[in-house]
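User: I'm writing a tutorial on reading structure tokens. Could you give me a worked example: one chain, its sequence, then its tokens, then a sentence or two explaining what the tokens reveal?
Assistant: Sure. Here is the example chain.
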Amino acid sequence: MKVDGQCHCGAITYEAEVEPGTIAICHCRDCQRQSGSVFRTNIPAAAETFRITKGVPRTYLKIADSGNRRIHAFCENCGGPIYACAAENPKSYSLRVGALNQGHELGAPSRQIWTRRRVAWLPPLQDVPAADGQA
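And here are its predicted structure tokens:
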């Protein structure tokens, strides 16, 4: 499915192809901090289909406790997150579902990761397969 999205202020726009039904919820502390919420929802887009159509995102390298190196891209005007990807030769881009114009059409999450970091007051999502850590 072709999707398009943008940052909050509209300075950065992009498009990609995604597979509906492949949304993941991440409860890790990094996603909580970056989203300013209790989890983040992402959907993968193959690198060959992802294209920035307007603007140039700002990026930074985040090295996880595991040593995994990820590039995070965001709008330098509004701070809106755009994507995350491997630091070298990304095969896919992790797009933020809330920034996609078709976010409501992509189906329910198919998995959730880092559930051991789920905030205590959030009820478990019983119908969504879960992993305590990185799946």
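What the tokens reveal: The chain has a mean pLDDT of 94. DSSP finds one helix and ten strands in the chain.
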